[in-house]
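Morning. Coffee machine broken again, so started the prediction first thing and wrote up yesterday's gels while waiting. Chain of 504 residues, entered below exactly as on the submission form.
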Amino acid sequence: MSLSDFLSSPWAKSHPAYRESALSILPAPEYANAEVLVAGLYRSIGMPGVAERAVPGNGRQLDRAVAKSRDMGKRPEGAALEGEAAHALLNGVLQSPKLQNQSAKRFIQVTPLVGETAWFSGSARLAGNPWPAGTLLRRMVWLGSDSQEGAETIWQRLFGALAVADGDDVFARFLSEELAAWSGHSWGDEPVMPGEGEVSLLPPGELEGRPFPARQFASDLAAVIDAKPLMTRRQWTSMLEALVRVAAVAHVAWLCEVQRRIWDMLRKALGGRIDAVPTRDQIYPLALSYLTFGKGALAELKDRTSAYLRARLGINALLWSLDDIGASHEGGLGCAADFERLRGSVAKHQAKLGEVLDHLEDLSESEARTLLCSKGIGSNLKEFALHVLYQRIPADTLLRGYDQGFVLRRKGTARSARWICAPGPLAILTLVHCSLAGVAGPRSVQRLAQHMAAYGIGVNHRDIARNDLGQQLRMLGLVLDSPDAETGMLLVAPFQAAVGMARP
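Came back before lunch.
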């Protein structure tokens, strides 16, 4: 591929150095919700060989098998349920609510309670080639870990927690065996480790002293895993979903911000300006804040996505232009030092790169709808962020309370009401638990505010006592109002036995 190929189709294929960067957004996110993310995680960690595009077909195959069993009065070997009961299990007990635009479609959609459900349910789309949502979470684990050994340890612990073992409740053990009998596919015996080039690690000390969502996610996974013995399987998977949805979008938002800052630095070099500020300080934000508690979220998410897309075009245009003039960037783009070398190349060949900005201006006009998040990758990114964070509005009004791990909810009951950042009770409980993991003694609500800030959710801890967050904390029994506390409110650990557990 050459510069001219890139200019004619800028989103089709990125420059190899950009695509293989640890700081690139891979895989490219599309529509998802919390259950799609968890189902994708099941497939990535414990179901090798199950392609995302095969999942809807597997669901139809299972549906036909159950229907045939109902008609003939037979059941597969090893199954405890008759066909009628199996149908009720899949389309009643385990059914995940369909959205309003899905009410007329017939397909199996179940809660990802055990790994066996991922064989036939939980793909991002019902046709085509759905994106592998689980690989995004896998990249987050590696990016947020300090070493290869640390990442593998977290991955193995997560596999062990996702597996159904003797410590799980009776229903989970029954369900795992029953679904395996009906589908003919069981959860894996050992975790699937990523292949070469599928994950990336940052150099040691690259982000020292700078919080970022992937690191917080890797740490919080351990806290959620520690709490598993204290809950039913359904409660625990719901908590995992709540963590995954807040972390996944925050991770993508952080990468968008890093890409924007990288392009700002390179664009200055293209204009002959080299700031004396260290590259690490230029490209990595000291804090991420893309949501504010109680405020609208749509415009901010759209602006960040648009800025990322412009940065992606700019960085790729520079890399292809350097190739075109015979000054290709050598090495990777996985850390601040690599981008500093790239900036040096841009500054050195500034005179020969004069047409880059003209090319980008032309692309801004031809790709305006994508840059405005109205189609293509821009629309997909926006849809990913919103649908993961939104409170699900099911077609069946009786199931309105199904989703309690949301981050965004409507401000009012009208369908035209705007979406605001107001995490649901399950999301709040999960964040409180994770914020108190590994600490001893009481902590004020300031610690919760700091933990939310690590995921890009801004809230002033001094306002918690008076806003909706404080009210929810009281209703959930997660705070004690104390005049002796600095802010008047002390956090209460929801799972006392898990909070004090030592981290591996």
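DSSP finds 20 helices and six strands in the chain. Going to sketch it on the whiteboard this afternoon.
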